[in-house]
Design brief:
Number of strands: 10
Shape: globular
CATH superfamily: NADP-dependent oxidoreductase domain
Strand order of the largest sheet: 3-4-5-6-7-8-9-10
Oligomer: single chain
Distance between the termini: 35 Å
Number of helices: 12
Largest sheet: 8 strands, parallel
Order of helices and strands: EEEHEHEHEHEHEHEHHHEHHH
Bound molecules: NADPH dihydro-nicotinamide-adenine-dinucleotide phosphate
Structural class: alpha/beta
Helix content: 40-55%
Length: 293
């Protein structure tokens, strides 16, 4: 399944489709992860802030796969930003996951009100990379100005920027900046989950264009959205706790969207974000502590 493999800017290979586990309760996480790996996924995206890294590790071990066969991505939360704090954040995540090395470690958010701490956190990631503790490093929710500042003040170009990206919010300017610097765009809420659970009135799953394209291929709107990401060269990390949907979201390697169909999905962009403005995340309002391993 070569289409599922993306080579990052440092040569490390990442399976394009991963299972996301944001809002997956710890008690459902082990089964969801083991189901995904059973169904062919080889990439799991978690975060220190999701409170389920331990159960992700359990799910990987339950699958019986070798550690090297599964790509593990996790994120450092803002309360662990700063050079020493971020090194310790790595130790907490690796300890909970039960692994010595992570495949991809990213900063969950830019802390624009304390950019000094953000830079120190990224320098810690650079050190972890140099020490072989992580195979690749990156960021999440970095907007163009913030990403440009990071590039100017640090050495290693992030391998990925994980951002809100679904048909209704495509961040085309940011994607172009990624392309310029060979940074992989990784889509969170890739099937527009946030257009539903954040209380929005326009659900991506009910979109007539996506339903119509899907009908031509015998596929669902979720599958059309995931196919669109793959064909446009992005990684996508759909979340589900249900085995049938986990399977559906991986069953996207047996059809092709035409150039017109890709353009029709591109045209759905409303340029309206459903998630929080990255600048609004501060230590005061979101700085909860991450427990020890
Ligand atoms: P998704 O776009 O993955 O959508 C998930 C939602 O859609 C859930 O409510 C799920 O419900 C439902 N769903 C899943 N598959 C289908 C399907 N085939 N048909 C219909 N409904 C479906 O949104 P997320 O926000 O969860 O994003 C995915 C991942 O991205 C997260 O899990 C996390 O790993 C990452 N993320 C990162 C963020 C960041 O700041 N870096 C922010 C948000 C997410 P159910 O489980 O009941 O099936």
């Amino acid at each position: 399944m070569t289409e599922n493999i993306i080579t990052l800017n440092n040569g490390v290979q990442l399976p394009a489709i991963g299972l996301g586990v944001f809002q997956t309760p710890p008690e459902e996480t082990t089964t969801a992860v083991a189901d995904a790996l059973d169904l062919g996924y080889r990439h799991i995206d978690t975060a220190a802030a999701y409170g389920n890294e331990r159960e992700v590790g359990d799910g990987i071990r339950r699958s019986g796969l070798d550690r090297a066969e599964v790509f593990i991505e996790t994120k450092i939360w803002i309360s662990d930003y700063g050079y020493d704090a971020t090194l310790h954040g790595f130790a907490k995540s690796a300890g909970k996951l039960g692994v010595d090395q992570l495949d991809l470690l990213i900063l969950h958010q830019p802390l624009t009100s304390r950019f000094d701490l953000t830079i120190e956190a990224y320098r810690a990631l650079e050190q972890l990379l140099a020490d072989g503790k992580v195979r690749a490093i990156g960021v999440s929710n970095f907007m163009p100005e913030v990403l440009t500042r990071l590039l100017a003040e640090t050495t290693v170009v992030p391998a990925v920027n994980q951002i809100e990206l679904h048909p209704y919010f495509q961040q085309k300017q940011l994607q172009a900046l990624h392309d310029e610097h060979n940074i992989l765009t990784q889509a969170w809420s890739p099937i527009g989950g946030i257009t539903s659970y954040a209380g929005g009135d326009k659900r991506s799953f009910d979109d007539p264009t996506l339903i119509d394209i899907g009908a031509r291929h015998g596929k669902t709107p979720a599958q059309v959205m995931l196919r669109w990401h793959i064909q446009e060269g992005r990684s996508a990390i759909p979340k589900s706790t249900k085995r049938t949907r986990i399977a559906e979201n991986f069953n996207v390697f047996d059809f092709q969207l035409s150039p017109d169909e890709l353009a029709a999905v591109d045209a759905l962009d409303t340029d309206v974000r459903s998630g929080p403005e990255p600048d609004s995340i501060t230590l005061d309002n979101y700085g909860m502590a991450i427990p020890e391993a």
